Amino acid sequence: MLLWRTISTLVLAPLVLLLLWYGNALVFVSTMAAVAARLLYEWYLLRSPRQWLAYLISTGVAWTLLVTLFVGRTDLIVTEISLLLLLLLSWRLWSYQPGQVVLTDPIDRSIIGLIYCVVPLLQMNTLHALPQGKEWLLYLLMVVWGTDIGAYLVGRLMGRHKMAPVISPGKSWEGACGGLVAGALAGWSIVPLLSLTLATESVMMLSIVVSVASQVGDLIESLFKREAGVKDSRALIPGHGGLLDRLDSLLFAVPVLFVYLMVLR
Cα(37)–Cα(68) distance, rounded to whole angstroms? Predict the structure, then answer.
């Protein structure tokens, strides 16, 4: 398990960095579209295996939103989301059976899936287009990866006190603290190398918040898997599981950086 996990990381990490640093806007948005399709695929298999129509609609919406953002027509996004809600509600009307609760499948799962899997990708695409967007996304990856590695190693070596035994028995408070320290140090060390203008105290605070968010994202996906009664979202990446398993931390960390750069900074 550890061997496959290490090999997969050594292969995938350089590819991700090459895409982030050298990929142009078209390559990046195309990659986000492919990632969105895969994440939604795993989401629907995890939550409702036979909802293929919901999956196709959600993927189409995700691609439409990405293209709209790519061409700069952000004014149309609200209209597209409104049409999505109308479509889902109309579909619920058509598929309604006596005794069912109206605001459940497929509406809630489709909306949650789009928010959970797709909104962070839209935010990544927006950040990538900023003047120092590539540098900020690289900073984000370093914090998330540092957190993941630190939590894994410290948890394996020193983990004694279970953090969430019902949801994820393998996670410990010692591992969480190790991940927090590693993530903060990774963020603090990479910022000067990327020439990002951020005070030391701000770097540490932002890195801590991003690290916490990434660990919460990991736990949230564990909760989804626990509810579905599966160990991994899919068997795609050796040692890691599915793409949702690999990106769960990032899906929660991206909105934190997005809010900081677009709202608070």
Answer: 16
Per-residue pLDDT of 39-77, as tens digits, reads 888 888 876 666 777 778 788 888 888 888 888 776 566
Q: What is the pLDDT of residue 110?
A: 75
Cα torsion for 187, 190, 194, 199, to the nearest 10°?
50
Cα separation, 196 vs 22, in Å, equals 19
Using CB atoms within 10 A of its CB, is residue 63 exposed (0-12), middle (13-18) or buried (19+)? middle
Q: Is 24 helix (H, G, I), strand (E, B) or coil?
A: coil
3-state secondary structure of 162: strand
What pLDDT sits at residue 13?
74
C-alpha–C-alpha distance, residues 239 and 175, integer Å: 19
pLDDT score at 23: 75
Cα 35 to Cα 129, 184, 232, 233, distances in angstroms: 18, 27, 17, 14
Tokens of 178: 């190790």
Residue span of the structural domain in which 134 resides: 2-264
In 3D, which of 96, 157, 136 has the Cα closest to residue 260?
Answer: 136
Cα 55 to Cα 63, 84, 242: the distances in Å are 12, 13, 17
- Alpha-carbon distance 206 to 190, whole Å? 13
Strands (E), the chain: 162-164, 168-172
How far the first Cα of the chain sits from its last, in Å, is 41
Question: Which residues of the chain are under the pLDDT cut of 70?
Answer: 1-11, 47-50, 74-108, 230-241
Residue 6 has a pLDDT of 56
Query: The whole model's pTM is what?
Result: 0.82
Q: Are 80 and 61 a contacting pair, CB within 8 Å? A: yes
Count structural domains, the chain: 1
User: Alpha-carbon distance 211 to 177, whole Å?
Assistant: 10
pLDDT score for 104: 53
